[in-house]
């Protein structure tokens, strides 16, 4: 019934009222495609390193590269969207994502790095555009729509984490074919956005970017919270299967555990924004999510593996809620769609550049410190920093420029 309530309550914008179910489906499918390129690598990373001879620095760079691209491409995405049309740019980004994801399994190590670079750029553009669309077309349903989109992100990530190893086994132990297969859903999403791109072709504007955001303390607090909680997530996506294997978990089960963790995220990803908007502000909800994440990660690193599924569940519940609230903060702290789009570019741009440091640092720990036991240091630092930033970002305030 959720889409039909939107039909009655959402103000008429450029979207014809009868196309709103199509728009909701298109947003959901975009969300499905923004994580497979990131979560499909971790379960087969040991095989990739074994077959290609990739060292610790190369593996760390490979896991960091797409997150860094997310940060570098997010800031200009809002400006490009105003110039060429958000829907048109989003359709182009999805085509780039399909091409880059497919290229990862072609051309050996060079194709893997080049495809990862392309996919990261595409995800950076697409991910930064969606909060502005939600603010523009669903202003009174920001929480539910952000939850729906975040649930799709988690679902896509979970499917890629859990099915990549079986796909590799089905294709004759070929990690190349398994990684390339995730380009097909991105191609399907691009085709779904083409009608929307044509319909909104005349809605482009050339309004200036709100430079005052970079001097606003609240914008920086939201940015730091997004970056630090994302750093925890991308460290988990990239290295959790390897950490689990180091603790005696077989590769297939390690991939399924990561998949289960991301699948659990759909629960708090869907309801987290709505729960957060019911209270006076979002600080209490954020602290609960960060505490769940910290407890689960501590269990995976230092607890008994007999409790592995319990630790994984806690990680999923915490990360899903922390990320979905981070996205809804962009909408809640912005007074209008234009500032929401620019804030999204700033938050995801600087935030993901900061987040990219996490996988890089974590991947070097066993090389230089000899054990994953030290992994708790970068995880703990990121979580404590996110909690500190949330004390400001979670307040009921607007960014006034």
Automatic annotation (TrEMBL):
List the transmembrane segments.
15-34, 54-74, 86-103, 109-134, 146-167, 179-197, 218-240, 252-272, 284-302, 308-331, 343-365, 371-391
Q: Which InterPro entries match?
A: MFS, MFS_Cyanate_Porter, MFS_dom, MFS_trans_sf
Any one Gene Ontology MF annotation carried by this entry is: transmembrane transporter activity
User: Which residues are in the Major facilitator superfamily (MFS) profile domain?
Assistant: 215-401
Q: Which Pfam families match?
A: MFS_1
**Keywords linked to the UniProt accession:** Membrane, Transmembrane, Transmembrane helix
List the protein's name: MFS transporter
- This protein's species is Nitrosococcus oceani C-27
| Organism phylogeny | Bacteria, Pseudomonadati, Pseudomonadota, Gammaproteobacteria, Chromatiales
């Amino acid at each position: 019934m959720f889409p039909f309530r939107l039909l009655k309550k959402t103000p008429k914008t450029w979207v014809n009222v009868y196309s709103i179910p199509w728009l909701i489906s298109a947003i959901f499918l975009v969300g499905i495609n923004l994580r497979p390129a990131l979560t499909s690598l971790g379960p087969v990373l040991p095989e990739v390193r074994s077959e290609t001879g990739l060292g610790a620095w190369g593996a760390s760079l490979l896991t960091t590269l797409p997150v860094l691209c997310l940060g570098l491409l997010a800031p200009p995405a809002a400006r490009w969207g105003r110039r060429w049309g958000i829907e048109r740019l989003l359709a182009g980004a999805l085509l780039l994502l399909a091409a880059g994801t497919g290229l990862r399994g072609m051309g050996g190590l060079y194709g893997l790095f080049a495809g990862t670079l392309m996919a990261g750029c595409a995800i950076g553009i697409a991910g930064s555009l969606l909060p502005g669309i939600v603010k523009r077309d669903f202003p009174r349903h920001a929480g539910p729509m952000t939850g729906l989109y975040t649930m799709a992100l988690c679902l896509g990530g979970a499917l890629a984490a859990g099915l990549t190893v079986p796909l590799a086994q089905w294709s004759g132990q070929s990690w190349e074919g398994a990684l390339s297969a995730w380009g097909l859903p991105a191609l399907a999403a691009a085709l779904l956005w083409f009608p929307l791109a044509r319909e909104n072709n005349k809605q482009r504007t050339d309004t200036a970017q709100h430079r005052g955001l970079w001097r606003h303390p609240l914008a920086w607090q939201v940015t730091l919270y997004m970056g630090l909680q994302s750093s925890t997530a991308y460290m988990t996506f990239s290295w959790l299967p390897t950490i689990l294997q180091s603790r005696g978990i077989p590769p297939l089960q390690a991939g399924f555990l990561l998949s289960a963790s991301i699948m659990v995220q759909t629960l708090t990803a869907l309801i987290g924004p709505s729960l957060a908007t019911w209270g006076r502000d979002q600080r209490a909800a954020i602290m609960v999510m960060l505490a769940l994440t910290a407890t689960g990660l501590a269990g995976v690193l230092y607890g008994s593996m007999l409790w592995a599924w319990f630790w994984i569940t806690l990680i999923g519940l915490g990360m899903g809620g922390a990320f979905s609230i981070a996205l809804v903060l962009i909408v809640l702290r912005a007074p209008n769609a234009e500032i929401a789009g620019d804030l999204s570019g700033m938050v995801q741009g600087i935030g993901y550049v900061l987040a990219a440091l996490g996988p890089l640092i974590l991947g070097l720990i066993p090389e230089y410190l000899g054990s994953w036991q030290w992994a708790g240091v970068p995880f703990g630092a990121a979580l404590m920093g996110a909690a500190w930033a949330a004390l400001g970002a979670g307040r009921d305030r607007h960014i006034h420029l």
